[in-house]
Design brief:
mainly beta, elongated, 1 helix, 122 residues, 5 strands
Length: 122
């Protein structure tokens, strides 16, 4: 069961982040998901973490230029060298900042590594 979700990142989407359809490119959202999950993993241990997998990524609603997107992270599972983080995010539309729309959800697995890049205990 996941721990309580903490807000780990908040980003305003800019015109440079749009795709050919005028919405925010999915890869930009994935990058921020990875960053937010990595922050959450590093809060669990003073280790370097690398991304092992992104699972169950679901794009629920589009994100637009000017939207403020907040990324929330919670620990799902913790192993000896790895940790699974659930990252969900919601957008506050630039034109309606008091509304929030859930836009993406993913599970990201990180592995703790030592200075040589080998898996290390958390």
């Amino acid at each position: 069961m996941a721990e309580r979700s903490d807000a780990t990142l908040r980003i305003t989407m800019l015109p440079r982040d749009t795709n050919a359809h005028g919405t925010i490119f999915g890869g930009v959202i994935l990058s921020h998901i990875d960053l937010a999950g990595g922050i959450a993993a590093s809060r669990q241990a003073s280790r370097n973490f690398v991304t092992r997998a992104m699972r169950a990524v679901e794009f629920i609603a589009p994100v637009y230029v000017g939207d403020v997107v907040s990324f929330y992270a919670a620990v799902l599972r913790r192993g000896t060298t790895s940790i699974a983080i659930k990252v969900s995010d919601e957008a506050e539309p630039g034109k309606e900042p008091r509304q929030r729309v859930k836009v993406t959800e993913a599970e990201v697995v990180y592995v703790a590594v030592d200075d040589a890049g080998k898996p290390a205990p958390i």
